[in-house]
Design a protein that fits this description.
seven-stranded mixed β-sheet
């Protein structure tokens, strides 16, 4: 991990941030504005290993091309002199991590090739006049090159450095033009990456800023964060935030270090168990209370109908329209079923990050054994996705939903996998990845989308139907189609006569039909 930091004041803040981020694999390349004395900055990090100051310095005035010069100079130093081939993260001296260094490392290591950079085509809504006045001869230039803008702060894999310098060598006029652009640090790299034509870049671009930033009207400068922002920072999924000032943010910085954010809570493979229902509480009360009494404190009731909502410290409302807040595309805009029940799990996870694993159990599942014994069967199982009837396309090509998958890089049928998940468990790492992919636009029926995405990324699976101690009576066609046998199936409904033994039964309605 290589942190490149643009600093110009408050050397003590630089020292505080570097100490917060340091670990065995972290290196820091620091550029200090030429207008300021560099010595206090050297002193501030003198006791920290792997800190390097750029050989040259630039007067990095706000909105000037010198910010691009300083950044390119640091990139060249990293490539030619430092020779540490790690991910590069741009920060300012007014930034601060709002996640632990371990969380940041783990998150970015799960995305080794991703280019995290916010970009939007010009004219850009957030900019005055769309930002067209930033670009000299805009009307002529836009017919030659597509212009993009976004946040100055981004993160790139080491491999992207070659792309940057190769592009600039082949296109010297690009560099010369941006010398005359106003606030070029908010458009130079966006425009370069989106016009370079490099397949590696285009495949790995992720339109995401890893920083939490609160903008002041008229959206020209970030607000200075204070203690009033602590709740938003604790809830934020970002890795960093800006801007902080030792004059106004001192209390906030202390709170960030003293109050654990969700990612820093001790996990110890903690598991959350979610019971999902759209029904009135009275109709599912017995099943839910049995689950909770047998499984401990981390059992939550997820209710999807506001009219049925009850009060309780472990009761969570999830309405289907929340998909808009999460930035997802649903399988069906009107209904969560079919295809999108896992959205409720992702919504819960985003607000309860302290767990390593998350079970989701639908309300038409019945288990007459002891739920604690059931979950204990998986205590030493560290796979990312536990579900039932993982099936490849060639084993059930007639399954109805195979083609209901839309992902950025389409795959052939031979790569598709489906599953059946009235009871399932996902790891936090798998949920991080799913969230990223869904926010990027991937969508489809969950029973094929979720396992296919996770399989393509190399996450691990475990099939409940194959468990050594039988937990279900498998149906012969692996729940493909609407006429199944076994205790765990799609259709028909389970009858009273069938409910025998400590197996999972599905679908069990409120009053199972007797034969």
């Amino acid at each position: 991990m290589i942190y490149f930091i643009l600093a110009h004041n408050f050397p003590e803040s630089l020292g505080t941030m570097v100490r917060k981020l340091r670990d065995d694999d972290a290196h820091f390349v620091i550029h200090v504005d030429k207008n300021f004395d560099i010595e206090p900055f050297r002193v501030a990090v003198s006791d920290i290993e792997n800190c390097y100051f750029t050989p040259d310095r630039f007067a990095t005035n706000w909105g000037s091309f010198s910010l691009i010069e300083a950044t390119l100079h640091a990139f060249k130093y990293i490539k030619d002199d430092l020779r540490k081939q790690g991910r590069i993260i741009l920060l300012s001296g007014a930034c601060y991590p709002i996640k632990s260094s371990g969380y940041i490392r783990d998150y970015l290591e799960r995305h080794p090739d991703t280019i995290f950079i916010e970009y939007e085509a010009v004219p850009r809504k957030a900019w005055s006049k769309g930002g067209t006045d930033r670009f000299p001869l805009y009307d002529e230039v836009k017919d030659t090159i597509d212009l993009y803008g976004g946040s100055q702060w981004f993160s790139i894999p080491y491999k992207a450095l070659e792309v940057i310098f190769d592009f600039l060598e082949l296109n010297p006029v690009f560099l010369e033009y941006f010398r005359h652009v106003w606030i070029p640090d908010e458009s130079f790299f966006q425009t370069l990456f989106l016009n370079c034509g490099d397949s590696y870049v285009m495949k790995n671009l992720n339109n995401q800023n890893l920083h939490y930033i609160k903008w002041e009207w008229p959206f020209m400068r970030p607000s200075t964060l204070t203690s009033k922002d602590i709740v938003d920072l604790q809830r934020s999924e970002s890795l960093f935030a800006r801007k902080f000032s030792p004059l106004n943010s001192n209390s906030l910085l202390k709170e960030l270090d003293l109050v654990p954010s969700a990612d820093t809570e001790k996990r110890n493979d903690k598991t959350a168990i979610l019971f999902l229902t759209d029904k009135p509480y009275d109709t599912i009360k017995a099943r839910y209370e049995k689950l909770r009494s047998e499984s401990g404190e981390d059992v939550y009731l997820i209710m999807t109908n506001r009219d049925n909502l009850i009060e309780g410290d472990k009761v969570v409302l999830y309405e289907h329209e929340y998909y808009r807040q999460m930035g997802y595309i649903p399988f069906d805009e009107e209904k969560m079923v079919p295809g999108s029940t896992y959205f409720s799990l992702l919504h819960f996870w985003r607000n309860h990050l302290a767990y390593e694993y998350y079970w989701l159990i639908e309300d038409d599942v019945l288990y007459e054994g002891d739920w604690n014994n059931f979950f204990n069967e998986f205590n030493s199982n560290h796979t990312d996705f536990i579900s039932s009837y993982f099936t490849h396309f060639h084993d059930a090509s007639h399954w109805y939903w195979w083609n209901d998958i839309n992902i950025k890089n389409p795959v052939g049928n031979e790569y598709k996998i489906r599953t059946f998940y009235p009871v399932c468990r996902l790891s936090s790492k798998a949920l991080v990845y799913l969230d990223e992919r869904l926010k990027s636009g991937d969508h489809g029926h969950g029973e094929v989308l979720v396992p296919t995405l996770l399989s393509l990324k190399g996450f691990t699976f475990y099939d409940i139907a194959d468990h050594q101690v039988p937990l279900i009576i498998p149906c012969s066609n692996r729940a493909v189609g609407d006429r199944n046998n076994g205790s765990f199936r799609y259709r028909p409904f389970i009858s009273k006569k069938e409910i025998k033994g400590n197996f999972l039964f599905h679908p069990v309605k409120e009053n199972p039909i007797s034969d």
